[in-house]
């Protein structure tokens, strides 16, 4: 059994990843769970391997032995927050990731899989291929993710770390983050309130169900062990079919059997107009690409929402 340490294990994707791996891998997970939000409190249920630790400090002393693979998901997440609290984003996503790399280097951990984001891409209305322009990002969040990619590239070349970066495209599903459109839309639509749609809903996202993300990570864990020392590869993980935010909201309303009331707001300057994943490279690598369509994915998420709401 491969031993895996997940950082950000109480987060949305970290929760699902623990569930995905817990019977087939030796899983440990850490998270900053000292002041739990209701989302973290709900996800913590049944996750016995989850420990409190900060990625900015020495977190490996919480474990009895070093893992073979670190899956680094811990981050300050969300684009809007990075405009208000850039320092927090720098400290967690850049300095925190640096400390994860140092902990790996100092303790002989050879393999790291880490979360990057579609936000690293420069505005691009066509398909985003991994080698497309990432020389500028609209959001500081995206820049912190790009800075992580650059630091990790160097650690691979200089210190022989083996790394795989995964650029996730708008992930949704049960236990979603409360700050994400998915949760805000479900809450407002269910309560009969209107929702704010940027650009009258004509903003396109490549919505990717969390089950496909964690399945892909599981397959990448199996591959990284045999990759050459010092290699660094980056893959998109996205469904590959951008949907307008309006259609996304309509699908949620349909599943909740509630009417949709919308108000249009201007698109913030730090948000991309469109994201579209080209996922061929991932498919070639693990022989898997996201398969969950929007209707099935929203059904899974809204069924969860009907019996689980955050305070
Ligand atoms: P999340 O906010 O639910 O999870 C992140 C977790 O990291 C949280 O539980 C938080 O408590 C933890 N954390 C923050 N600072 C920490 C620290 N100093 N030490 C330990 N833990 C800390 O986010 P998510 O949606 O599960 O995202 C997981 C990863 O995927 C993140 O790196 C995010 O940037 C990336 N990502 C997510 C999406 C998406 O649509 N959800 C898209 C692109 C990239």
Structure write-up:
- With about 300 residues, the chain is an alpha/beta fold.
- It has one domain: Rossmann fold (3-Layer(aba) Sandwich), CATH 3.40.50.720.
- The chain has 10 helices and 13 strands.
- It has helices at about 10-20, 40-45, 80-85, 85-105, 140-160, 180-190, 210-225, 245-255, 280-285, 295-305; strands at about 5, 25-30, 50, 70, 110-115, 160-170, 170, 195-200, 205, 210, 230-235, 245, 260-265.
- The protein has a 7-stranded parallel sheet, sandwiched between helices.
- Helix 1 (about 10-20) links the parallel strand 1 (about 5) and strand 2 (about 25-30).
- It is globular and about 55 Å long.
- The chain starts with a strand and ends with a helix.
- The mean pLDDT is about 95.
Question: Secondary-structure element order, as H and E?
Answer: EHEHEEHHEHEEHEEEHEEHEHH
Bound molecules: nicotinamide-adenine-dinucleotide
Which architecture would the CATH scheme give at its second level? 3-Layer(aba) Sandwich
General form: globular
Can you lay out the helices and strands and say which pair or pack?
Elements: E1 3-7, H1 12-21, E2 26-31, H2 38-44, E3 50-52, E4 69-72, H3 79-84, H4 86-106, E5 111-117, H5 140-159, E6 162-168, E7 171-172, H6 181-190, E8 195-198, E9 204-205, E10 208-209, H7 210-224, E11 232-237, E12 243-244, H8 245-256, E13 262-265, H9 280-286, H10 294-307
Parallel strand pairs: 1-2, 1-4, 2-3, 4-5, 5-6, 6-11, 7-10, 8-13
Antiparallel strand pairs: 9-12
Helix pairs in contact: 1-7, 4-5, 6-8, 8-10
């Amino acid at each position: 059994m491969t031993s895996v340490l997940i950082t950000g294990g109480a987060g949305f994707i970290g929760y699902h990843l623990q569930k995905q791996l817990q019977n087939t891998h030796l899983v440990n997970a850490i998270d900053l769970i000292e002041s739990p939000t209701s989302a973290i409190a709900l996800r913590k249920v049944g996750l016995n391997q989850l420990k409190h630790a900060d990625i900015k400090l020495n977190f490996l002393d919480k474990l009895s032995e070093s893992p073979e693979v670190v899956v680094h998901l811990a981050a300050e997440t969300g684009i809007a927050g990075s405009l208000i609290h850039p320092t927090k984003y720098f400290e967690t996503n850049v300095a925190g990731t640096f400390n994860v790399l140092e902990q790996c280097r100092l303790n002989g951990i050879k393999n790291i899989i880490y979360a990057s984001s579609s936000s690293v891409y420069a505005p691009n209305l066509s398909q985003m291929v991994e080698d497309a322009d990432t020389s500028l990002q609209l959001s500081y969040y995206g820049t912190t993710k790009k800075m992580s990619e650059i630091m990790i590239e160097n650690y691979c070349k200089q210190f022989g770390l083996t790394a795989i970066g995964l650029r996730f495209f708008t992930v949704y599903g049960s236990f979603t983050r409360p700050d994400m459109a998915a949760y805000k839309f479900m809450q407002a639509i269910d309560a009969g309130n209107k929702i704010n749609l940027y650009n009258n809903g004509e903003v396109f996202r490549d919505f990717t169900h969390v089950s496909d993300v964690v399945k892909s990570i599981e397959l990448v864990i199996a591959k990284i062990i045999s990759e050459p020392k010092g290699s660094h590869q980056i893959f998109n993980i996205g469904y590959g079919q951008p949907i307008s935010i309006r259609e996304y909201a309509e699908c949620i309303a349909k599943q909740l059997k509630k009417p949709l009331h919308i108000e249009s707001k201007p698109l913030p300057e730090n948000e991309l107009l469109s994201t579209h994943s080209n996922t061929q490279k991932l498919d070639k690598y693990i022989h898997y690409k996201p398969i969950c369509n929007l209707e099935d994915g929203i059904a899974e998420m809204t069924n969860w929402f009907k019996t689980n709401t955050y305070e």
